[in-house]
Every structure is written in C-alpha cells, then in structure tokens.
Amino acid sequence: KLSFPAKLVVFVDAAPSDRKPTQVVIDAYEGKEILDLDCHMMKMVNASFDLDFSLDKFKHCIDYDFKEEALVRWWEAVEDFPVSHHGKPLTLVRKGTRIQTEISRKFSDSLLQSLAERAGAHLEIHRT
C-alpha cells in the first residue's frame, strides 16, 4: 500500500471533436510512409505464404468509422484477379474485396469516462 494517493496517467489519441476535425485524424495516416508500410506488409504476406497478390490490383483506402470510434485502413480490389499459391491457382479475388491493414481506436471523453466509471476510478482529462 502506498503512503500517498496513487494516480495512473494514460495518454490516448483523441477521437475527432470540435477541437480535432476528422480530416486531421485521416491526414495523419495518409502519408507516403504509411503506404510504404502497407506495401511492405503485403509483400511479406506474398513472400511468407508464396502467394502472388498483385498490389496494382488494389487501391489503398482510409476512413474514420464513427460507430467504432476508430480510423480504419484497408486495401480494396479494384477488379477481379486470380491469386496463386506455389504457382497453382488458389482463388479469385473479387472486385471490392477488402484486406484490413489497421484499426486505430480513438478515445472520446465519454468513452474514457465510461471506462473509468466501470473501473471505479475518478477521471481527470488534461489536454495539451
């Protein structure tokens, strides 16, 4: 037992609000570095499983899902195309098929308050 009142400090990425527009959140994830990371990830999937996903058959997508309070990124097939494994036909990827690459949860004040209450804690929000 501590001889002083304990505090837990948690840093979170805030959900869009009047202080942080949705486009600011999306823009933070749209850079070349993020695209390069996702391309590398898809190349690793191909190499690890001996597949031949054609990256030129996908478009890179990003949006904010208000229901999930999360930024989501995915690859979406722009046309039907075959995928092979060890050079043998495996499946046909249909136009519109998505491969999820990220779900980045964001935290609204109400969600943080709800989590604190369920944990029996007092919440103080400080912004910078």
Q: Please report the total strand number as a whole number.
A: 5
Mean pLDDT, all residues: 89
**Stretches with pLDDT under 50, minimum 5 residues:** none
Oligomer: single chain
What spatial form do the alpha-carbon principal axes imply?
elongated
User: How much helicity do the residues have?
Assistant: 25-40%
Strand residue content: 25-35%
The spatial strand order of the largest sheet comes to: 1-2-5
Order of helices and strands: HHEEEEEH
Distance between the termini: 32 Å
Q: Given the helix and strand composition, which structural class is it? A: alpha+beta
Biggest sheet character: 3 strands, antiparallel
Give the C-alpha Rg.
20 Å
Query: How many helix segments?
Result: 3
Offer a few descriptive terms.
128 residues; alpha+beta; three-stranded antiparallel beta sheet; two-stranded antiparallel ribbon; 5 strands
Q: How would you describe what is shown here?
A:
This protein is an alpha+beta fold. Helix content is 27%, strand content 27%. The protein contains three helices and five strands. The protein has helices spanning 22-27, 32-49, 109-118; strands at 58-65, 70-77, 81-85, 88-93, 98-105. It has a three-stranded antiparallel beta sheet with strand order 1-2-5. A two-stranded antiparallel ribbon has the order 3-4. A hairpin with a 4-residue loop joins strand 1 (58-65) and strand 2. The longest helix is centred in the first third of the chain and has 18 residues, at 32-49. The radius of gyration is 20 Å and the shape is elongated. The mean pLDDT is 89.
